[in-house]
Amino acid sequence: MKPAPFAYERARSLDHAIELISGAEDARLLAGGQSLIATLNMRLSRPQLLVDINRVPGLDRIVMRDGKVEIGALVRYAQAERSTEIATRAPLIAKALPYIGHPAIRNRGTVGGSIAFGDPAAELPACFVALDAEAVIAGPSGSRVVKADTFYRGLFESALTPHELLKAIRVPAATGETRTGFAEFARRHGDYAMAGLAATARANGKALADIRLVFFGVATTPVRARGAEAALANGDLEAAVKALATDLIPPGDVQATSAVKRQLAGVLLKRVAAELMEARS
Ligand SMILES: Cc1cc2nc3c(=O)[nH]c(=O)nc-3n(C[C@H](O)[C@H](O)[C@H](O)COP(=O)(O)OP(=O)(O)OC[C@H]3O[C@@H](n4cnc5c(N)ncnc54)[C@H](O)[C@@H]3O)c2cc1C
For a tag site, which of 97, 131, 185, 224 has the least CB within 10 Å? Predict the structure, then answer.
């Protein structure tokens, strides 16, 4: 199918992008286009104006700042896969990136596009929450920072308003005590996951502390399994798996029934818990 007619503007700067989206009734930002163009072609979305941010300077950098890795919204997945900072200071993201689509999609798709779009089955939004990261948002009245735990509000709904732009995400840099785990089940490699799990923890002697278990593909947003986190912190994996029965209420979808997703979540938790216990990850 072809998209409904729309106007197109290329933003020269961050301020220009905000001016353009604030001035139009129904404008949409265009980053990698890997989700937006599909929704336009299927006429799930009919914006009047597309504001292309691909040439906005300064949004495609990965920098260390105040103990955090700042990943600009326009950093492509492929660029992040090649980054030493991401490999060493944000290893959970490095683990998740190869699961996103295929190389052609990773060459265009952006970190900011994935976080802003917030597909409930996508890998990076779950990592964003598991990492206790934050979103740097720019809008007509300046910049603000929103913690990942409060960023997602519902299905494809986030703290971003229609006149705002995600500038970057900030991820606390990994230390020697940081542990990460990632696993997902998809029908074919590169498909969206039927269920997945992104996790972080801090090694505390032989135990784990500050555990964050974030499932994706099982709810309308990435979802923390708080009962399982508490059980795992007590070193009780079986209790953690049992706790998923109340932590997760997965709706069935075209990929799998609710019962299958529950089963998969338990298997994922066992795999990821073993990964978290490994000496350095
Ligand atoms: C065949 C195929 C397979 C895929 N498989 C996967 C997969 O397995 N896992 C996965 O996670 N994704 C997958 N994707 C989607 C891909 O990851 C997209 O790149 C991502 O969802 C959106 O990033 P984008 O840069 O392409 O954003 P766009 O498509 O350009 O934009 C997506 C939405 O986010 C908004 N937006 C973009 N950037 C910003 C910003 N900086 N601030 C505010 N709003 C913004 C846009 O206005 C739009 O509404 C797949 C895509 C395809 C085509």
Answer: 224
Judged by DSSP in three states, 17 sits in helix
179 residue type, one letter? R
31 in contact with ligand 1, CB cutoff 6 A: yes
Name the β-bridge partners of 197.
183, 215
Residue position matching structure tokens 């073993």: 274
Closest residue by CA, ligand 1 atom 53: 34
Q: Give the closest residue (by CA) to ligand 1 atom 28.
A: 33
**pLDDT single digits (tens) 73-86:** 999 999 999 999 99
Strand partners, 110: 76
Answer for the pair 39, 45: CB distance below 8 angstroms, yes or no.
yes
Name the residue with the closest Cα to ligand 1, atom 20.
Answer: 114
Which two tokens mark 78? 């492929």
Whole-number Å distance between alpha carbons of 26 and 31? 16
Q: One-letter amino acid identity for 245?
A: A
Instruction: Determine the residue type at 187.
Output: R
CB 180 within 8 A of CB 280: no
The answer, yes or no, to whether any atom of ligand 1 lies below 6 A from the CB of 100, is yes
Instruction: Confirm or reject: Cβ of 215 under 6 Å from ligand 1.
Output: no
Regarding the beta carbon of 122 and ligand 1, being less than 6 Å apart is answered yes
Distance (Å, whole) CA 208 – CA 27: 45
Q: Are the beta carbons of 34 and 76 closer than 8 angstroms?
A: no
How confident is the model over 147-193, as pLDDT tens digits?
Answer: 999 999 999 999 999 999 999 999 999 999 999 999 999 999 888 99
pTM of the model: 0.97
CB of 32 shorter than 6 A to ligand 1: yes
What crossing angle do the helices spanning 237-247 and 258-277 adopt, rounded to 10°? 140
